[in-house]
Amino acid sequence: MRWCNPSSGFCRLLVSGAALLLCATGAQAEATPTPHGTLELIAENQWIEKRDLAGGQKFDVGLYFKLEKGWHIYWVNPGDSGEPPRVEWRLPSGLSAGAIEWPTPRRLQDSSSIADYGYEDAVLLIVPMHADPKLATEQATHIGADVKLLVCSQEMCIPGKAQLSLTLPIESHAAVPNSRYADLFAATRKSLPRPAPANWKFGVADLNDSFVLTANVSHKSSGPPITQATFFPLAESQIENSSPQKLLPEANGFRLTLRKSDRFLKPIARLKGVLELSAGDSHLNEAFLIDAPVSKPSAARASSDLGARAVQ
Amino acid sequence: MKRSTLYPMLFYPMLVALALCAAPPLISAAKVGAAAPDFTGTASNGKTFHLSDYRGKYVVLEWHNNGCPYVRKQYNSGNMQRLQKQWTSQGVVWFTILSSALGKQGYATAGEENDFMAKMQAAPTAALLDPAGEIGHLYDAKTSPQMVVINPQGVVIYDGAIDDKPTTDLNDIPGAANYVSLALQQAMAGKPVQTASTRPYGCSVKYADAAH
């Protein structure tokens, strides 16, 4: 077969058409195999908008993990065992990566004394990217990510590595979302813990063996009472991850008892983490980022009203 | 007092006291600074070991599961074996403990563990087979590896991770601060142990009472 004659217009069209096809598929990431799953570096938008970069241009990319049934990866605080995924970015000058936005994890109970925090089935870890005027706009932007991860089942753990890359063109007009990933980014953002409403108040009592988180929440005054609460600590070695967290409803909210970790040594001024709440029969969970002051209760206050009322 | 009254007065309380003594002890997870709970373990070499026999010596407990990548990091690099040789040659008693239940990763028969130790040139004082998880639960071992150091007075002076690089990468061993060696060095020099408790990193111990 003869190569087509480059001077022919038809040939040029054919070659550029083929190149365009290759470029189009190049802009879409392919899933990289990991132990018992796949990992993809995806972008929310199809390109980066070239408008005035002096003010900084923000856009989101994400690490999309898909896992086989029975396998999981870990949250930023993995709990008693395991290790969260770690990313090292390979970015051009003018581009920087923000911190991973961790969706609310699931509690994974390994045994009576061991519990971890992580994700099963699939999870998108959104990472905000920031472009400034140094970013070269004459060519497409190449984003690289070297990911180390640990994938575990009840039976075993397997470490893995993935080298991912993503190429984003730079265009002068407003970025258009990748329709392929729009739902995924939207659903993930819904599952991100959000700051608690301003009129909610939290405090933590530092008792001998436990922390008692007191929440004063005016949770939709006509809404159903909170029936389930789970606190996921951001830091390790603060609470006993495998202990059940006892919920005591109160007039304006609730108290949640968190058994301290045996490793908890130095007192802390604040308890930070994610508080997941469900109310009534609905399976709708809401998750909030909380950062509550910790104090030793006065003897008087400790023995006074608990304000408990019967669980309905 | 008549004999017929005295004996019942003594007998029943004694029965109650005996019953209380015979009751199984409450599980008390070991804590740094507290007395190390005594245990009896059967080793892969068939011998029986009581922790209390080693009062007067430093004792290291090493939770082990040879299928776990974090344990393999320490053994495939030769690091764990080196630590075992280094410290046992200085009079430290080193127990490798296998708390995995039958059928779960990390479980080994005596023969299998002996083969593993020979192949890897491991040099603990003994490898204790704990498939019922009794010693594991007594020390609240959550991961493999997890390390406990006990001083000659029988007090836990370190409990937690083997070092400060919580990864599966062998390349992280040379630059890592080894908490076991540091605890032993500092305690042997009569100094307080600077880092006495850390979150152990590794795979969860595969106890018999696991979820499934």
Set down the secondary structure blueprint.
The complex is a heterodimer of chains A (312) and B (212).
Chain A: H1 9-27, E1 32-34, E2 37-43, E3 48-49, E4 57-67, E5 72-79, E6 86-90, E7 95-97, E8 106-111, E9 114-120, E10 122-131, E11 141-152, E12 157-168, E13 170-171, H2 179-190, E14 194-195, E15 201-206, E16 210-216, E17 226-233, E18 246-250, E19 253-259, E20 270-279, E21 285-295, H3 299-303
Parallel strand pairs in A: 3-13, 14-21, 15-21
Antiparallel strand pairs in A: 1-2, 2-4, 4-10, 5-9, 6-11, 7-10, 8-9, 11-12, 15-16, 16-19, 17-20, 18-19, 20-21
Chain B: H1 3-22, E1 40-43, E2 48-50, E3 59-63, H2 69-76, H3 79-88, E4 93-98, H4 110-120, E5 126-129, H5 134-138, E6 143-144, E7 147-150, E8 156-160, H6 179-188, E9 203-204
Parallel strand pairs in B: 3-4, 4-5
Antiparallel strand pairs in B: 1-2, 1-5, 3-7, 6-9, 7-8
Summarize the structure.
The complex is a heterodimer of chains A (312) and B (212). Chain A is mainly beta.
Notable characteristics:
heterodimer; A: mainly beta; Immunoglobulin-like; 2 domains; five-stranded antiparallel beta sheet; 3 helices; 46% strand; B: Glutaredoxin; two-stranded antiparallel sheet; 6 helices; globular
Tell me what you see in this structure.
- The complex is a heterodimer of chains A (312) and B (212).
- Chain A is mostly beta strands and 312 residues long.
- Helix content of chain A is 12%, strand content 46%.
- Chain A folds into two domains: 28-192, Thiol:disulfide interchange protein DsbD, N-terminal domain (Immunoglobulin-like), CATH 2.60.40.1250; 195-303, Immunoglobulin-like (Sandwich), CATH 2.60.40.
- In chain A, the strands form five sheets. In chain A, strands 14, 15, 16, 17, 18, 19, 20 and 21 form an eight-stranded mixed sheet that branches.
- In chain A, strand 20 (270-279) and strand 21 (285-295) form a beta hairpin.
- The longest helix of chain A is centred in the N-terminal third of the chain and has 19 residues, at 9-27.
- Chain A is elongated.
- By secondary structure, chain B is α+β, with helices and mostly antiparallel strands.
- Chain B has a single domain, classed as Glutaredoxin (3-Layer(aba) Sandwich).
- In chain B, the strands form two sheets. Chain B has a seven-stranded mixed sheet, covered by helices on one side. A two-stranded antiparallel ribbon of chain B has the order 6-9.
- In chain B, strand 4 (93-98), helix 4 and strand 5 (126-129) form a beta-alpha-beta unit.
- The model of chain B is unreliable at 19-27 (pLDDT under 50).
- Classes of the chains: A mainly beta (312), B alpha+beta (212).
- The interface between A and B is medium-sized, with 25 and 32 residues.
